[in-house]
Design a protein that fits this description.
Length: 283
């Protein structure tokens, strides 16, 4: 019983945190059709914001707005100076964002060095759930993510802004004709995607090892989720995160961490071979 509860908690944690990490990449691709190769570096910047805040002796909660503002501003500048000139040129945007990922990584190295960094959990200790002791910070994080994703889904489906976003995803040309400022929305989308990645990094900083190359793993995980769930769909993001997070958790529990990663890789390869559009791609 206890092992089943622990597996369920670990799987829920894996799914929710994976969805948080992938969200920024999904926003940018869903609205702009740009596969942002610098996505992992935005996550890393968010994590380093948390490290900087805690190193300064400030409350860790302040790292959340700092990460959002910092990565959002960088994303805004990148879209305005580089990406806006490369729309409808997927290979060029891929190369450009790959180059930007290297540039951002080098900037992190210059600012913080190559040493591994760590951030202490803002809330220590554990809580007992169904006979299992589980870290309080992970529980708080999962609850916050559940509330946040529910609010995001309602906003996406019910609000006027959500309608404009879905219109741009479905048909950018028609959205322009009916008066939606797609250029402004594109810039906001890239900034929001970058800010979402930064927020993910700051929230996960106490739970991961922080170093300049950490973004590569997050980028690969994000691509795996989009391959399985489908590109450009909020529903696909949650489906992909559930399958990939669940598979990785199951593989790691049964056979170890490496086996979990191999399981995810094999699932992604099978989807690329048998169902390359994913389970819930945008139409």
């Amino acid at each position: 019983m206890e092992s089943s509860v622990l597996f369920l908690l670990n799987t829920s944690y894996a799914v929710l945190t994976l969805a948080l990490v992938v969200l920024g990449l999904a926003i940018i691709f869903g609205l702009l059709g740009v596969l942002n190769m610098a996505h992992g570096e935005f996550v890393a910047i968010g994590a380093y914001c948390a490290f900087a805040v805690q190193s300064a002796g400030l409350p860790l909660i302040l790292s959340l707005p700092l990460a959002i503002i910092t990565t959002g501003a960088v994303g805004w500048l990148i879209e305005a100076s580089v990406i806006r000139h490369l729309y409808k040129r997927p290979f060029d945007t891929l190369l450009a964002t790959w180059g930007l990922s290297i540039l951002l990584r080098e900037g992190i190295e210059l600012a913080f060095g190559l040493e591994y960094r760590s951030v202490s959990e803002p809330v220590s200790g554990s809580v007992r759930l169904l006979g299992v002791d589980y870290p309080i910070y992970r529980i708080m994080l999962m609850v916050a993510l559940l509330i946040g994703f529910a609010a995001l889904y309602v906003w996406y489906r019910r609000s006027n802004a959500g309608v404009r976003v879905r219109a741009m995803i479905a048909n950018p040309q028609l959205a322009t004709i009916v008066g939606i400022d797609t250029q402004k929305l594109a810039r906001l989308a890239f900034a929001a995607g970058a800010a979402s990645a930064g927020l993910a990094g700051a929230m996960l900083a106490p739970l991961v090892r922080i170093e300049p190359f950490m973004g590569i793993d997050f980028l690969l995980q994000s691509f795996f989720v989009l391959v399985v769930g489908g590109l450009g769909s909020l529903e696909g993001l949650f489906i992909g995160s559930s399958l990939i997070g669940g598979a990785e958790s199951a593989g790691s529990t049964l056979m170890g961490g490496t086996a979990g990663y191999v399981t995810v890789l094999l699932i992604s390869i099978l989807f690329l071979w048998l169902k390359p559009e994913g389970l819930h791609a945008r139409r």
